[in-house]
Request: fold
Amino acid sequence: MKILILLAFLASSSIVQCSVRMRRHTGPHNLIYMTFDDGPGAGTLQTLDVLKEFKISATFFVNGIHLDTNNRQALTERRQLIHRIVQEGHMIGDHSYNHMKNNTPDGSPNNVYKTPEEDILYFGLKNVEPVARELKAAGLDNQTLSKVSFNIAKHVRMPYTANWRVGDIVANCVDCTLPVHISGKAGVALADLMHKRGVDVIGWDTEFAIDWRKPGSRYAHDGAEMMRKVENVKPQSPGKIVVLSHDRAHRPGGGVSELTEFFKLALAKGYQFRTIDTYETDKPVGARTVGAETMENYTPDKPEKIFS
Reply:
């Protein structure tokens, strides 16, 4: 376990600085990166079932606090879920240990980020340790466990905000968290600090939106509308679209049919699904590699501000 934690530390420290300078691509939007936030928990099982049905790989940005519980039944179920995530070829990323509830206990997007040097302590090792511990308890082999630990420490999605730091992509959503002059700017500074230490910060290009105003946290639209959003968005990297979703939308009682419809439509149109760990080096199928000068007039869409 000490070796695994060390690997994670190296991944999240300034020692790991090597990265490939990304050359952008033109052509059809034909790579989709499905990402699911806030698990493991309610809805993760149903999400995995749909992914398995369509043989689609996805990325789960998790909060390790869900694995630090005294409820034995809940812990057993969540351990099985993260083990299944890995066993079925999905990737696990870092969504902070506790969704930054240390700063915003009411779960709102207000005052999420305060001091980068303190906020960063809720990412990396603090989130890797509970996941690695429970995967080891589930019987995952050490080699795979090392890879999983590295990926968690290397790939971060910040709660509530679509900041990006991947290769030559630098994008911020300063007004995603409030107040802008405090939390928004602190979130940008935190993204800078994490990237300086070798971490990729992953935002999103479009969202399979949840209507947070309604009880149950269900999707706000159907799969056909999600397909329309994918086809019309201008992503951070042309041809590669990161879709944000949440495990909880698929809890028993709803959400699965919308996701199923979207997958059917996307696959029928020739889209391929990838995990975030290959985002920087993936080349969209049939796309033409171009240099940075060709991208000067390209402006990606700004993601919707959401409660994520």
Notes: The chain has nine helices and twelve strands. Confidence is low (pLDDT under 50) at residues 1-27. The first strand starts at residue 25 and ends at 26.
